[in-house]
Amino acid sequence: MAMATNFCHQLLGAFLTILVLQPLVVKSRLMKLESPRNHGQGQSNCDSLGGGVGGPTSDGLLHNTLSSGRWYNFPVTYGFRSGYVVPSGLDPQVVTTVIDVAFGKWKAAIPDPQFAFQRITPGDNANIKITFAPLPGYYGYGYYPPNGNLSLDNSHTSWSTKPTPAGNEVDLLSGVLNTIGHTLGLEDSTDPTAVMYPTLKYGSIKRNLSPDDISRIQNLYYYSRPHLELAKPL
C-alpha cells in the first residue's frame, strides 16, 4: 500500500512539472515528404516532431535520413506568397529584412560561391514560399526539399523583432533560422545550443548558427560533392 501511494505521488508530481514547464517553450514543426525511395515509388507522407524543455525531445516518431532531401540548383529562390499579411505589431519591411538576414547566415556557413539564395517578389514561384498562417501548437512549419514551403504562425505567437524579446515573445530571427534549416533539408538537432534544436524558449534568442548547425549544413551541401579540380597534365 505504501509503495502504491508513493508511486501515485511521483506520478502526480511529474504531471504538475509538465504543466509548469510547458508554457515556457514553443515548438517548430518540421514537415517532411518521404522520398520515393521509401514505401513505394511516388508515395509521400508527412509527420511532425516536437518537444519541450524539461519534457521529451521527440514525440516518438522515427527519423528517416532518406526523407529530408536537399536543393541541387542554385541560387535557391525564396519569397513571400502573394497576399500574405504579417501579424499585427510587425513592420513588413523589418520582417523582410529579418528573413534576408537569416538566409544570409545559412549562406555564410558554406564556403562555396555556388551555394546562394535569391529573394524574388512575389514568391509564389519561389523554391521556398513563405507565408503567415494559423499553426496551433507551433510557431513554424518547415517542409523539406523539394517542397520548401515555410509557414510562420499568426494566431497565437507573439513575434518580436526587438533586440531583446519579452518573456512572452518569440524572437523572429531565432525562429526563422530554424524553419529555414528544415526547408534546406536539415533534421532536428539533439544539441540544445543549436538553432536546429526543436524547441525555443519564450524570450530567448538563437541568432547565430552553432558548430553543430554549421557542421550539418556543410555535410549536406559542401562535403557531399568534390570541390577540387583535378590537376591538368603538363
UniProtKB/TrEMBL annotation:
Signal as UniProt keyword: yes
InterPro entries in UniProt: MetalloPept_cat_dom_sf (IPR024079), Pept_M10_metallopeptidase (IPR001818), Pept_M10A (IPR021190), Peptidase_Metallo (IPR006026)
The keyword Lipid metabolism is assigned to this record: no
Protein name per UniProt: Peptidase metallopeptidase domain-containing protein
Domain Peptidase metallopeptidase stretches: 67-223
Organism domain of life: Eukaryota
Leader sequence segment: 1-28
SMART domains: ZnMc
Keywords for the protein's UniProt record, in alphabetical order: Hydrolase, Metal-binding, Protease, Signal, Zinc
UniProt xrefs under Pfam families: Peptidase_M10
Protein's organism: Hibiscus sabdariffa (roselle)
